[in-house]
C-alpha cells in the first residue's frame, strides 16, 4: 500500500484496504472555526452536545473576529461557554487563522487523521497529516463517536522536480496544478513528492496543500521523506520551467500566466490569510515594498496569518515597512477572504489577492473581479496599479 492507504488502514485498525472500500477511521483531531460552527452547534444540540471520550477538538475565532455584528458576538460567547463545559480548545483572543494557529500550537505528524468543518484543513498535509474537509452536519458523527466513515479514494501522485526561478513561489506551483490537473485530482487524494519539496520551506508546503482542494481534491499531503513505500508518479512537473500564474474569475481553476494579463488595472490588492499570510510571505512583501509607495489608486490590505507571525513582523520592523509603503496591516486572521468585513469589494473593484476563491461575491460585490496570485505578484501589482510580475 502507498503512504495514504497505509495511514488510513492504521486509523481503521485494518491490515489492508483498497480503493472504493468503506472504512471507519479513528480521528486524531477535529477542527473548526466561527465561520462554520454556528451550523455545527445547531446540528449538534440535538444530542445535547454529546462528545466522544478522548476526542480532541481545536477551534479558532478567525472569520468574524473581532465581532462584526451583535449576532456574531453572541455566538462567540456561546461557543466560549460550550468550550469550557466540554473542554474544547478554543483560541479566542485574535491568535489568527485556524490552519496557521494549528501548525504553531499542535504537533502535526505524518499519517495522523484530521477532520474539520472548513474547506482547507488539508493545509495540515504539509506535515504529512491526512485531513478531510467535512460539512458542519458531517462533523457531528466524529464529534459524537470519534470516527469518520470514508470511502477510500484514489490517490494521484504529483512529483515536483527541481527548483523554481526567483519570481515563482509555491502559490504559482499550486495554481499551475489547479489549472492543468483539476479534472485529474477532483474527488481524489493528492500526494506530493519530488526534489522541490526536499528544499521547500514548511510555509511553502502549507501553501501547496492549502489550495489544492479548490481543484476538487479530497485532501492533499506531502509524502514524508522517511516514507519507504513505493509511490508511482501520476504526473511530474518541472517547477524550474514555471512562470508566475494568476487564477482568472470566476474559478480558481481558470488559470493563466501573469504575462498574459500584464497591464490589467487593479484597485485592491490583498495579501495574507490561510494561504499566504506566513512569515515567508511577509518577508518577501517587505522586500518588494521597502522604500516604495503603493499606487495611489490601490488599497493594499495585508493580514498576518497569526499573532506569532505578526509579533515576528513587529520585531523585525516589517510591519513599519509595510505601513510606510501605504499598506493597511490588519489583525491576524482570515481578513477579507470570507467576505465578512475588513475590506469588502464594491461593484467597481478589480482585486488581485492571495485568498483562496474568486467566485462572484466572495469578497463583497458579485460584480467585483477577483484575480488570485502569489504574494510576490500581488505586491508588485500593488506598486504599479496593474497586474505585474516585475518592479
UniProtKB/TrEMBL annotation:
Pfam families: Aconitase (PF00330). GO terms for molecular function: iron-sulfur cluster binding; lyase activity; metal ion binding. GO terms for biological process: oxoacid metabolic process. SUPFAM superfamilies: Aconitase iron-sulfur domain (SSF53732). InterPro entries: Acnase/IPM_dHydase_lsu_aba_1/3, Acoase/IPM_deHydtase_lsu_aba, Aconitase_4Fe-4S_dom, IPM_dehydratase_rel_enz. Signal peptide: none annotated. Residues 19-227, 263-385 form the Aconitase/3-isopropylmalate dehydratase large subunit alpha/beta/alpha domain. Keywords: Iron, Iron-sulfur, Lyase, Metal-binding. Gene3D superfamilies: Aconitase, domain 3. PANTHER family: HOMOACONITASE, MITOCHONDRIAL (PTHR43822:SF2), HOMOACONITASE, MITOCHONDRIAL-RELATED (PTHR43822). This is 3-isopropylmalate dehydratase large subunit. The lineage of its organism: Bacteria, Bacillati, Bacillota, Clostridia, Eubacteriales.
Amino acid at each position: 500500500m502507498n503512504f495514504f492507504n497505509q495511514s488510513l488502514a492504521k486509523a481503521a485498525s485494518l491490515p489492508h484496504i483498497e480503493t472504493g472500500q468503506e472504512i471507519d477511521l479513528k480521528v486524531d483531531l477535529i477542527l473548526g472555526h466561527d465561520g462554520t460552527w454556528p451550523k455545527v452547534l445547531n446540528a449538534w444540540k440535538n444530542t445535547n452536545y454529546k462528545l466522544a471520550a478522548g476526542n480532541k477538538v481545536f477551534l479558532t475565532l478567525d472569520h468574524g473576529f473581532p465581532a462584526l455584528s451583535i449576532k456574531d458576538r453572541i455566538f462567540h460567547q456561546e461557543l466560549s461557554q460550550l468550550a469550557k463545559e466540554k473542554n474544547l480548545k478554543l483560541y479566542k483572543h485574535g491568535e489568527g487563522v485556524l490552519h496557521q494557529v494549528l501548525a504553531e500550537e499542535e504537533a502535526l505528524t505524518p499519517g495522523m487523521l484530521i477532520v474539520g468543518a472548513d474547506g482547507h484543513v488539508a493545509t495540515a498535509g504539509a506535515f504529512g497529516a491526512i485531513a478531510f474537509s467535512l460539512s458542519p452536519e458531517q462533523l457531528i458523527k466524529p464529534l459524537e463517536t470519534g470516527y469518520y466513515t470514508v470511502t477510500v479514494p484514489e490517490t494521484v501522485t504529483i512529483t515536483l522536480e527541481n527548483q523554481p526561478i526567483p519570481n515563482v513561489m509555491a502559490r504559482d506551483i499550486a495554481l499551475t496544478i489547479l489549472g492543468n490537473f483539476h479534472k485529474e485530482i477532483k474527488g481524489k487524494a493528492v500526494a506530493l513528492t519530488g526534489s522541490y519539496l526536499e528544499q521547500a520551506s514548511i510555509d511553502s508546503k502549507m501553501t501547496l496543500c492549502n489550495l489544492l482542494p479548490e481543484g476538487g481534491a479530497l485532501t492533499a499531503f506531502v509524502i514524508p521523506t522517511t516514507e519507504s513505500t513505493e509511490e508511482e508518479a501520476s504526473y511530474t512537473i518541472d517547477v524550474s520551467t514555471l512562470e508566475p500564474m494568476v487564477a482568472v474569475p470566476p474559478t480558481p481553476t481558470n488559470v493563466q500566466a501573469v504575462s498574459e494579463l500584464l497591464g490589467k488595472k487593479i484597485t485592491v490588492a490583498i495579501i495574507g490569510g490561510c494561504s499566504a499570510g506566513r512569515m515567508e510571505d511577509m518577508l518577501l512583501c517587505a522586500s518588494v515594498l521597502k522604500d516604495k509607495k503603493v499606487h495611489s489608486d490601490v488599497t493594499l490590505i495585508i493580514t498576518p496569518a497569526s499573532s506569532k507571525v505578526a509579533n515576528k513582523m513587529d520585531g523585525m520592523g516589517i510591519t513599519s515597512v509595510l505601513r510606510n509603503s501605504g499598506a493597511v496591516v490588519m489583525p491576524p486572521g482570515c481578513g477579507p477572504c470570507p467576505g465578512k468585513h475588513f475590506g469588502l469589494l464594491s461593484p467597481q473593484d478589480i482585486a488581485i489577492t492571495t485568498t483562496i476563491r474568486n467566485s462572484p461575491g466572495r469578497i463583497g460585490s458579485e460584480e467585483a473581479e477577483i484575480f488570485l496570485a502569489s504574494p510576490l505578484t500581488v505586491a508588485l501589482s500593488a506598486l504599479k496599479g496593474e497586474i505585474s510580475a516585475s518592479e
